[in-house]
């Protein structure tokens, strides 16, 4: 099965329990301001985190980067990967392609993505996001970018059956003002944004967050800029042997989240589903044998 590398952010987060007090303080600062915190000098980072310069160097060495320059270069490589075009992605995969059928190569990558994604999901955060979406006092809005909007549409189609008060937002600026007018403090905005991150999505998230809307973000290992405004952020592995990224792991997270919400609202959801089936029968919506 294809190996999936961890992001620098995940590596630091995963190792934080084994760090000294000063290193934990430094790591916490880095994670709060990632990746910008790692783009300055050792002295600048040490001063901002209120630790010594040797602590910065020591943490970089403990993380396996040899020193601070190695850690910085790894972060720069990650940032560069965020902007990779489909053409460049294709050339990278094609150059290292093993002599096996595409079905096997692609399936191995997808399964590896899914396992790595599920391994890093915080269950408590996931449950809290489900509870937020199950709250009948909150309305739910969902949006995505050029590639991820269909996931938002899929989510909305199912959630409209599970509970009322669910709306899809098209990622075009002329649709925002009416939607933002309807958003109240405490409502939820589900956002899907993977590389190359779209300015329109970020702008909508910023305005919604300013109104007190709770943002739930599904993104990739390099993390959408919209994460700065998100209450909950779930990162999924997306790389596959293709010019385009895979959204399979994100789709699994979304379907699991909907199942979790459904379990919390089942009494109301069951009644809605029965009524919907009655309406389908009355309209002869589905083909009968």
From TrEMBL:
SUPFAM superfamilies: Homeodomain-like (SSF46689), SIS domain (SSF53697)
PROSITE patterns: HTH_RPIR
Domain HTH rpiR-type span(s) in chain numbering: 6-82
Membrane-crossing segments per the record: none
Pfam families, per the entry: HTH_6, SIS
InterPro entries, per database record: Homeodomain-like_sf, HTH_RpiR, RpiR-like, SIS_dom, SIS_dom_sf, WH-like_DNA-bd_sf
Superkingdom: Bacteria
Name of the protein: RpiR family transcriptional regulator
